[in-house]
Amino acid sequence: MATTATPTFTAFRQYEPNEAACIVFIVVFALLLFAHLWQSIRARIWYMWPLILSTGLEVVGYVLREYSIHEPVYHWPSMVYVGPGYSIIRPTWITPVFVGFDILAIATQGLGSAFIFGTELDINKLTRGRTVLIVGLFIQLVAFAVFLLLAIYFDRKTTVALRGRVASIRPLMNVFYLSGALILLRSIYRANLSP
């Protein structure tokens, strides 16, 4: 009698999705979605709809992750079929490096803002605060630009090597590039218009 083994994730051996965390995030984001939706409708605050849409997309993303935990042989909800060999740097470094830079940028911006909006009205402190704030904004800008360049390299290399196999993620990459360009424009705008 033949037995069927449960398929496991093999593309990234270091990545095993945590089902409990996934369910927690589905519940948390679903609650936030309904809370924001209720607030927006009740108070007739229509400018909250981008927040509501993005929260809804978080719910969908975590639902798809939950689905991929139970159906690991179907690759459409995730990109596990694209191997780590197509990246310039190790995939395990991407999150720590770029989240680290993001934390550094936010902390630097917070420090600069603290100088600017402190209780003392000292012109030297205001000037120093503005400089620190702009440095934080440029750290964020440069880190995100490097991240986009790495993504472009990865996309081009996988497109050449895998061709039709990655065609299904082309719309995802196009949306990523569009949102990345908008984030870069916002960062440049903020860096130029800092107080």
What's the SSE pattern?
HHHHH
Total helices: the number is: 5
- N- to C-terminal distance: 74 Å
Question: Which percent band covers the strand fraction?
Answer: under 5%
Category by helix and strand content: mainly alpha
Instruction: Report the biggest beta sheet as strand number plus sense, adding barrel if it closes.
Output: none
Mean pLDDT: 80
Task: Tell me the total number of β-strands.
Answer: 0
Low-confidence stretches: 1-14
Global shape: globular
The total number of structural domains is 2
Percent of residues in helices: 55-70%
Radius of gyration from CA coordinates: 21 Å
Question: Can you give a write-up of this model?
Answer:
The protein has 5 helices and no strands. The longest helix is centred in the C-terminal third of the chain and has 40 residues, at 123-162. The protein folds into 2 domains: 19-70; 84-192. It is mainly alpha-helical and 195 residues long. The relative contact order is 0.08. Mean pLDDT is 80; it is low at 1-14. 70% of the residues lie in helices and 0% in strands.
